[in-house]
Amino acid sequence: MTPLILVTNDDGVRAPGLAILAQALQGVGRTVIVAPDRDNSAASHSLTMTRPLRVKELGGNRYSVDGTPTDCVTLALGKILSCKPQLVVSGINPGPNLGDDVSYSGTVSAAVEGTMLGVPSLAVSLAGEDPFSYETAAAFAARLARTILDKGLPRDTLLNVNVPNRRSEEIQGVRFTRQGRRVYDGAIKETLDPWGRQHYWIGGGTPFWDEGEDTDAQAIIAGYVSVTPLHLDLTNHKALRKLEAEWVLTI
Ligand code: MN
Fold this sequence. Notes:
It is a single chain. This protein is of the alpha/beta class. The chain has one domain (4-181, 211-246): Stationary-phase Survival Protein Sure Homolog, Chain: A, CATH 3.40.1210. 28% of the residues lie in helices and 28% in strands. The protein is built from 7 helices and 13 strands. The protein has helices at 16-25, 69-80, 101-104, 106-116, 135-151, 216-221, 237-246; strands at 4-8, 30-36, 55-57, 62-65, 87-94, 121-127, 157-164, 174-176, 182-185, 188-192, 198-202, 206-209, 225-231. It has a 9-stranded mixed beta sheet with strand order 3-4-2-1-5-6-7-13-8, sandwiched between helices. The structure holds manganese (II) ion. Manganese (II) ion binds next to helix 4.
């Protein structure tokens, strides 16, 4: 049976990375696109609950939703798709989702939502800067999709994939990595509005990484594709054991 693949993103239904990803995945299964009607980058895992959502059928198995990436996955699995997909693929984001980016990322959150709803999911991002060339990442995503359909994923686990924005012959290989730390310096810009009132704009800044071994950011710096298995369970199990052993809390 041909697998059904839900393709989504956080950059909006017209984003080039989405079209190229869906095209590459057409060789793997039957693809349906359900994506936000506009850019939702840094939407994280937000769900729209304060207003109704509208779905627009755009033809060619494409749908737009006037909501977040999480809304898209929720509506796709609950209403739009005729049956449960075998895979959710989110991307290709123009820009990395490394380390702490994961907490803010709409791209990754769509894959988190797919995983929560019991569908193997992966998020794909292009690590680099404009001009973006999506072909290598799309081809890798298609190969990885086949592997996931063949082998499955560990329970409650999604894959966060970052591909260097380089030609395939300039990529060193593929590394399994852990999530690192990525901190931005100078990400709050303080400027004046046309009336001379102070305001703030969060964005940009200079990212820097921790020096940790085996991290997603280190793999990208070394020129490798980074594949990080992320777990839905955010519990720090080592800390849990330490707190249980050393703290006494009463009420
Ligand atoms: Mn984005």
